[in-house]
Write a structure and sequence with these properties.
By secondary structure, this protein is mainly alpha-helical. The protein has helices at 5-9, 12-16, 21-24, 29-32, 34-50, 55-73, 76-92, 206-225, 243-262, and strands at residues 112-114, 130-132, 135-142, 157-159, 190-194.
């Protein structure tokens, strides 16, 4: 999620209000104090956009490109045809999400599964090979009536303009709403399309989710059928707060291990 509790604790404006990270990263704050809500997310968004990539992103990008080169060395057409064949078999037995087509799923042997909401991975990596499972500050959604629940969000999702910046007062950490943060469909208040605390109205990105599910399913089938292939799960920057991410890696490894065991092989 956006920022850490440690960062928030150092902000004078929040300390004076006796507010912590969970108070601010809550959709109900939009109704309680609109400018404080937009100030918090505006600070995050401005900061994320100003932050340049560290070398870790370039290392991952080089690895991705190396995987592509290796796959192409073995015959790009052959790799695509194997992916297509596995995809078609899973589609035929209805083991893939409905509406997912093979061209909407990356056939690269590489995928980024992240809880980061800064959208930095999408600066360099193909959108089809990134799943931001908690959403992103670059994408906004209609907020509906958060306080009373009297009006559900209209399900409109939109991107912030690339040249947009929040007009943040750093003394109060407040920012006004703007046209860019207003729902273009119904004119209601907007909010980041980010999963927050106590969030019942977040609109999940089913397209990204389904793309990842389809990719993982195809890769698992290819690994099951070809024991010479290897699966690597690289976890970066995880701790006990990110159990959903850790469990996803374990699920993938356990699924492959079970299938190989059934074939009398060892992972």
């Amino acid at each position: 999620m956006a920022r850490s509790g440690r960062d928030i604790a150092k902000v004078d404006a929040y300390e004076k209000l006796d507010m912590d990270y969970q108070d601010l990263c809550d959709p109900y704050m939009l109704e309680q104090d609109e400018e404080l809500f937009y100030g918090f997310w505006g600070s995050c968004t401005n900061s994320y956009r100003d932050t340049k990539h560290h070398k870790g992103y370039q290392i991952l990008l080089k690895w991705r490109d190396a995987f592509r080169v290796k796959a192409n060395a073995n015959g790009a057409d052959g790799t695509r045809s194997r992916f297509q064949a596995a995809f078609d078999r899973l589609k035929e037995c209805q083991a893939l999400p409905a509406g997912v087509g093979v061209h909407s799923v990356t056939n690269d042997p590489f995928f980024v599964y992240t809880s980061n909401v800064d959208s930095h991975f999408k600066r360099d990596f193909d959108c089809k090979e990134v799943y931001e499972l908690h959403g992103s500050v670059e994408t906004w959604q209609c907020a509906g009536d958060v306080e009373t629940g009297a009006r559900e969000p209209c399900e409109k999702i939109w991107k912030l303009p690339l040249d947009f910046r929040f007009d943040l007062d750093v003394a109060t950490m407040k920012a006004p709403g703007a046209e860019a943060t207003t729902c273009p469909e119904c004119g209601g208040k907007g909010r980041p399309n980010v999963l927050m605390f106590h969030d019942r109205q977040w609109i999940a990105n089913r397209s990204e989710e389904n793309g990842y599910i389809a990719w993982e399913s195809v890769m698992e089938l290819m690994l099951q059928e070809d024991p010479t292939l290897n699966l690597v799960v690289l976890e970066i920057g995880l701790n006990n707060r990110f159990l959903p991410i850790q469990s996803k890696g374990l699920e993938a490894l356990e699924a492959i291990d079970r299938e190989l065991a059934n074939l009398g092989l060892k992972a």
